Structures are given as structure tokens and as C-alpha cells.
Amino acid sequence: METEIQTIIGRFMITRFNVNGSSFYYYALLLIIGTFPALSLIIDGYGSGVWYLLGVLGIAAFASKPTIVKSIIQDRRLLLLLSLPLAFVIWSFLIYHFIDPSDFAKSRFQRHTLLLICIPVTLLFYHLNFRTKDLLLCFSLSGIVFLVYWLLDDGAGRLDGLVHAIHFGNIALIIFILCCGASALQTRRHWFIISVVGGAGSLLAFIQAGSRGGVMALVLALLVIGFWFSISRNRIRHFTITLVLVMLAAGLSINFIPPLSDRYDATIQEVSKINNGQMYNSVGMRFMMWDASLEVAAHSPFIGSGFSAYRTEIFDRIEKDELKPIMSEFSSEPHNQFLYQLASHGLIGVFLFLLLVTVPLFYLASEKTVSDRASKILALTLSIIFLSFLFFGLTITLFDQRRVLQSFGLLYSLTAWFLSVKQKERIL
Questions:
Q1: What keywords is this UniProt entry annotated with (predicted)?
Q2: Do residues 408 and 382 lie in contact, with contact meaning Cβ atoms separated by under 8 Å?
Q3: pLDDT of residue 16
Q4: Which of 81, 185, 240, 416 is the most exposed place for a label (fewest CB within 10 A)?
Q5: Integer Cα distance of 53 and 191 in angstroms
Q6: In angstroms, rounded to a whole number, what is the distance separating the alpha carbons of residues 50 and 55?
């Protein structure tokens, strides 16, 4: 009976999802994946619905072909990549269950469980055998969505959606990077135009969102990539050129592009106010939040004090008149992923977060991982993205937002698929 069920599911997956160049379902799934990052920020419920759908399809892929698990077990790198989200969620559960079983902690732990869906989504990628060009190009659709959203916006303030403008801008930046990778691979004019339009739309959305942390993350990511290539090829002068070009581009952007220049001017003014003892501005309040999170971390540096500890510290300081009541609006997280992990999950939590971001980077940097041009471009694109996520965490908390977790999970699954031994042999 079990064999018959697996056969039926297998036939369903093969007839509807296997790639033959003209499969409607293949391109329908690319459409869903490609629009997912942008629409999840704009349409309420879309992100969760699609993320769960991809997870269910991944489970169906496993049910139709249980030998996938045997292949994964034989691929140590893929097995490690799939185990990291599981380890992260297990540690979050232990923190919630034994240290902080509050309702607030429960809501945060439930958000972290979204990372578990990375596992079946990776199986789905593994089963479908997407083409690299198609995968990169499909994210141009999110760029087009951003373009339409930008055109419909009244321009009165920073561009945002269901999330804060910082997260909105950061995800738009990720899509811009993917569109750049897609445009580098397209040989047909119409596909190239689509990737360029998508890149332009996501760039405009990023600029209008005014994410200062996003600009900083992109600059740092490009410098790290430039430094790595220079060291690996023993050509330090290339890093000097990269440094000059990146800093020149950043300088021109913050001086001549109004939304970015406005944010830069605001930063200079806020720093000046801090020097005069006026802390209640965007930068100054971050310093106060970071101070509170470090105070919490000092109580239990290794295992953390739970999801609610930082929140409790902020309210205690407000009650003692050490902070103004306005700080209660920033009591859920300290605008820093590393300090958020340190205060709530301890050094173990920080270590697990770093593994999630740096292990894919380590494998992507391996010369043995890539061979053909498409694979090299995808590896470079994903490397910049993971570095950007790493640096995003310096100025904002990432893993307390469902939509950020879902977009990160999708890209993590894509990377795990790309790095799998069997899939590397198939990439076209």
C-alpha cells in the first residue's frame, strides 16, 4: 500500500513538476518563487501562505522519491547545511521552554520555527532541478513588483510595506543583487531587459526606503568580496581598485541621490546631537538599546536570559526614569541581531546564528564548488547576499521578523541546493 501511494505521488510530481523546458508547473513555481520576496512585504498573509506551500511541495517531493534522503546523507555538506536551521530552532526551543516560557517568548520562538521549512524547500529545489538562469531571472519579477509599488507610492516618506522601511529596503537590496546576477547571464535581449527593469525597480525601492544600514552592508560586502578575490589571486592592487570604486560610488550616492543624501544628513545631525548629550534620536536610541541588551547579556553570557529579558530591562529603566517612555516602542528588540542573540540566546545563540550565515559563505568561497560561468555568477551573487545579511545584523534585528525569516529561508534553501553534490553536476 505504501509503495502504491509513493508511486501515485511520484507520477503526480513527475507529470507536473519535472522539467521538460515547457512545463507549465515548472514556470508557475518559478513565478511564485520569484515574486515571493516582494509580495510577502506588500500583501498580508502572502508570505506565510507561499512559504508553507513550498514546504508542503517539498514534503511531497520527498514522498515521491524517498531516495533523496539517502543522497543527502551521502552529501556531508548538504547534510550540515540542513542541520544548521534545525540546531538554531532547537536552541530557541530550549531557551523558550526552560528559561523564558512567556507568551512573548512563545511568539518569537514560533517565528524561528519558520526556518525549519528550509529543509523541505531544499528538497523541492533538489527534486525539480531548476536551471540557474531561470532561478536568477525569476527574482526580477520581485524587482518589477517593487517598481510598480514605487510608482504607486505618493513619495511623501520612506517606502515601506508590512514591515519597517529598513527591512523593506534591505529585501529590495537583496533583489537588486539577484537581478544584477541575472542580467549577467542573459543572452537574449528580452530576458536581459526584464532583469534590468527588475534591477532598476528594486534599486529605486531600496533608495526610497532609505536604509542606511543597507548601504553600509552593501559597501562592506563588496569590500570583503574584493579583498577575498585579491588575496586568493595574490593581487592586492585589485582590492585597492575595488576600495576606491566602492567608496567613490558610495560617496556619489549619499551626495547626489536625495533619499540617501537626506538620510546621510540626518545621521550627521544625530551624531552632533549625541555629542551635545541629546540621545533621543535614531542613532542615540540605538546606543541606549544596545547598552540595555549588553546589561542583560552580562547576567547570563553563555546561554542567554530569554526572549523577554531585553524587554524587561527596557521597562525597568523606564520605571526608574533612566529612559523616557518613548523607549517602550523599542522594547521588543535592540536593533542589532548579534546583541539580540547574545541577550536572549547567549554566546551559543550568537554562534549558531553565525554558522547559519558563514557556513554557506565558506562553501561558496571554495573554488571546487563552481566551474562554469553560470555557477560562478550564482556563487558570487549568493556570497554578496549572505555577507549583506551578516552586516544587516549590525544595525537591525533580522530574526524577529517573519517575512525576513521567510526570505532568508528561501535564499538559504537555494544555496543549499546549489551546493549539493548531485545538483552541481546538473546545473546548466
A1: Ligase, Membrane, Transmembrane, Transmembrane helix
A2: no
A3: 44
A4: 240
A5: 27
A6: 9
**C-alpha cell of residue 282:** 535614531
CA angle 359, 218, 402 (to 5 degrees): 65
CA-nearest of 207, 336, 329 to 263 is: 207
Q: Hey, what's the cell of 376?
A: 560562478
pTM: predicted TM-score of the whole model, two decimal places: 0.90
Listed in sequence order, the residues at least 6 apart from 195 whose beta carbon sits closer than 8 Å to its beta carbon are 136, 137, 140, 179, 182, 183, 186
pLDDT of residue 248: 86
Q: Which three cell numbers stand for residue 129?
A: 532541478
CB 308 within 8 A of CB 109: no
Tens of pLDDT, residues 35-94: 999 999 999 999 999 999 999 999 988 887 777 777 777 788 888 999 999 999 999 999
Q: Which residue shows C-alpha cell 526552560?
A: 98
Q: DSSP letters along 315-347, please?
A: HHHHHTTSS-GGGGGG-S--S-HHHHHHHHHHH
Contact status, residue 118 vs residue 82, Cβ threshold 8 Å: yes
In this structure, which amino acid lies at residue 92? S
Q: Which of 292-306, 385-399, 410-424 has the lowest mean pLDDT?
A: 410-424
What's the structural domain count of the chain?
1
- Enclosing domain of residue 237: 2-424
Burial of 100-115, coded b for 16+ CB within 10 Å and e otherwise, reads bebeebeebbebbebb
Of 266, 245, 242, 236, nearest in space to 254 by CA:
266
Query: In sequence order, what are the residues at sequence separation of 6 or more whose Cβ sits closer than 8 angstroms to the Cβ of residue 163?
Result: 41, 171, 401, 403, 404
What is the number of other CB atoms lying within 10 angstroms of the CB of residue 188? 9
Count of helices and strands (H, E) across the chain: 20, 0
Q: CA 337, CA 353: separation in Å to the nearest integer?
A: 9
* Gap between the Cα atoms of 193 and 78, Å rounded: 34
Cell representation of residue 274: 549625541
